[in-house]
Fold:
Amino acid sequence: MADPNPDQQAWAELFGIQAPIGDGQGEAGEARRGLFSRLRENLTRPRQAISPQLAGIFAPKLVTEETWEQLEEALITADCGMEESLAVVEELRAETREGRIVGGQDLARALWRVIARDMAPEPARISLEHTPTVIMVVGVNGSGKTTTVGKLAHRLSSLGKSVVIGAADTFRAAAVDQLAVWAERAGAQLVRQGPGADPGAVAYDAVASGRSRGADVVLIDTAGRLQTKHNLMEELRKVAGVPAKLDPTAPHETLLVLDATTGQNGLSQARLFHEAITLTGVILTKVDGTAKGGIVLPIRRDLDLPVKLVGSGEKLEDLQPFDAEAFARAIFSPEA
Ligand code: GDP
Structure:
């Protein structure tokens, strides 16, 4: 069961559980370094987009008026949103006036600190206190939902948790087959019905199965509804209400998978989903394909939703608990 991957410690922290033997105490620092370096690696391409800008901002020995203009532009380019970008610049300007920031290097450190704080005032958590803990995963087609459910199932299994996956995306046979492969790899039980089956019935079966087996976690993959279609959102609302028939406290998490490359459009998507069903957090995928990871800030600021997980590639290990500090530094560091 022991996994030599230092990520395990970060995952155990996310879930509020003990890491398996072999990934015990004293490895949190190593885990953080591991996460940071891989995130950095996966974000190389996106970072190149604003790298010259950042290099120009962080290089000077003295911060000048021009620095602030450049910084504001870089923040907006990274999709931090106008309001947040202006607020960050204002705060850092004040620190400069007070003499706490003198040169570009001070500015870099202060920027990472402020961005990380605004991205996540507290560390990401997904509590597994319920048996089973029911986690619904929603989002539009192509956002990476199915892949994320597979990665999550695998990670939970490697932490010794038993997992049931409900394939409630009954509209796409391919999605169910894809999930079957993921489930087998993760040693998770897959609950599925035929194509076109009622997604609510699948969700119900999955939770019922999880309860009867005493599973630790039930992951429900829902259909990638187009958020603009009112009736489709209505259906999602119905599916979201199903787990409560078996456990009034469920679902315990409803996570929106958001493709980071959709930029500001992702924000309106998040808003629509949040209005239809109550979200508890966001899983930001494909941050490896964009310099727009700053979208975490308006998600937090406007919707008060925490980003809990980040997908930075197609490999199994390219899903990580959201670490605001590592993320802020990975986005806002010039190319080495
Ligand atoms: P769904 O329609 O929302 O279930 O999306 P899928 O899980 O089928 O994923 C759509 C595509 O995005 C697939 O080709 C995935 O391999 C890819 N994908 C998912 N997550 C990531 C990620 O974090 N980074 C990258 N580069 N690709 C991803």
Remarks:
- Residues 82-97 form the longest helix (16 residues).
- The two ends are 37 Å apart (CA to CA).
- The chain has a mean pLDDT of 88.
